[in-house]
Amino acid sequence: GFTVGEAVGLHCAELVMPPFTRGKKQLARVEIDRVRQLSRVRIHVERVIGTLRQKYTFLQGTLPITLLMHPVADTERCIADDITVVCCALCNIGKSVVPFQ
């Protein structure tokens, strides 16, 4: 098996998770601030994913296995990966979900 953190690390990214209160009555002040900061970002990520699914409804349902079986030009990507990247790019050039002040 593998962990999500390892899989994300392969793409030069970092998985950031809020701290847990396991074994503690409450979080330290620094941890509370970090949780709040993550929550602010998470809201925007969820809104972007919602926008993506709303605009491109075929991403909501089950994709045909044929989209997952055919690699693209001798790479490890499949057609479904390329379709998703294009949909994300089109969302990115649209109106921002993050309000600018």
Q: Structural class of the secondary elements?
A: mainly alpha
N-to-C series of helices and strands: HHHH
From the N-terminal CA to the C-terminal CA, the straight-line distance is 44 Å
Number of strands: 0
Helix content: 40-55%
C-alpha Rg (nearest Å): 18 Å
Could you give a short account of the major beta sheet? none
Number of helices: 4
Q: Which stretches are low in confidence, meaning pLDDT under 50 for 5 or more residues running?
A: none
Shape: extended
Strand content: under 5%
Task: Walk me through this protein's architecture.
This protein is an all-alpha fold. Helix content is 50%, strand content 0%. It is built from 4 helices and no strands. It has helices at 4-9, 29-55, 66-69, 79-92. The chain is extended.
What's the arrangement of secondary structure elements?
Blueprint lengths: L3 H6 L19 H27 L10 H4 L9 H14 L9
Quick overview:
This protein is mostly helical. It has 4 helices and no strands.
List keywords for this structure.
4 helices, extended, mainly alpha, 101 residues
